[in-house]
Amino acid sequence: MSKIDYKLSLETSYNLKKAPPIYLHSNNNFNEVEEASLILGLYIFGKDFVRVKRFIGTKSIGELKTFYYTKFYQSEDHKRWRIYKEARETIRGSNMQQLFIEPTHQHFLSHLLHNESAKHCCNKLLEVVKNFHRGNLKLEEYVFALKDLVGVEALIDAVGIGKENDLTSPTANSMKSINEILAGKDYSNLTHIEIILLLTCNARVSKTRESGLFWRAVWPRLLAKGWSKISKGCSIVFGVPGVEGVSRKLVKGIHYFDSIKDLLAEVASHPELIKDPVKETAMVNQVFGMKFDDPDVVRVSALEDHFRNHVVETVRKSKRNTKPSMKALEAVVDKMEEVTSSKRMRR
């Protein structure tokens, strides 16, 4: 008998002796989902049966303890959980949040977002993830927010306890970082969900790969939606749809963006900018299917080289506040009124 088995045997005997008789004779009917929910709850919350009870939602604490001390103990699932628990305590000192620390968390979210249950609420899901990373949600709040959005079965599938892609296994710590994943993947094949994940989950993408991500994955989608590259001398800015030239009336952050970093931040905050469920694949392929020997087409690779290691220059350097002033806003309103009035006169 191994040390772990001997320790479990003693612990089982001790806990069964001290357990009230009601725990030994109460109803112990757990279906497959409830059983998997209990096990996942233990990985997340430990033996905090109050939180585990809330996580399962269909069993009393007495029923949970009965299952834990009679059926779960000394099972393969229990041994796997104990190994996970003790390994995390030894390595990092805190074992209950490892599923939500990078890079494991990135893989968890990737699995979750490819689940059918998550496809109808991607934007809400990404907003919850962003709030968690910003520190606006505690772990418990985050877990229950995810459960409310996609359901407990989707969470169980995403973690995959006991399966081939088990995120709780010892090899989960050695999973590839996001930079390693990007290194071997064609940026143009990334979905908009994967792009937003990279931009919002503290992935720490290197500057070179951030540039590649922008030009190969983000910019083609923006370009197809009417965004434009506006140049003036040595300066280049990215204009929103409808903006064709540069003028002092334009407001940075509203009408144009003067750096890749700022534009990626805008995309991360507004995923709908690059989302097109019907034409997403065609959108990217269309841009990269261009004939780059055409003199009228700007080479993307040349642009990458130009912007790879530095921020794009601003159109007009100024120390003034970049927030829109009342005059700027009034100018925008006046312009809109002129356009509206002109259309009415034509009618």
UniProtKB/TrEMBL annotation:
Q: What is this protein called in UniProt? A: SANT domain-containing protein
- Among the Pfam families in the record, one is DUF7952
Which superkingdom, per the lineage?
Answer: Eukaryota
Its source organism is Pisum sativum
Please provide the record's keywords in A-Z order. Answer: Nucleus, Transcription, Transcription regulation
Q: Give the location in the cell.
A: Nucleus
All residue ranges annotated as the SANT domain in the record: 25-76
The GO terms describing molecular function are: transcription corepressor activity
Gene3D superfamilies per the UniProt record, alphabetical: 1.20.58.1880
Which InterPro entries does the record associate with it? DUF7650, DUF7952, Homeodomain-like_sf, SANT_dom
| Record lineage | Eukaryota, Viridiplantae, Streptophyta, Embryophyta, Tracheophyta
- Please verify whether the record's keywords include Nucleus: yes
Q: One GO cellular component term, please give it.
A: nucleus
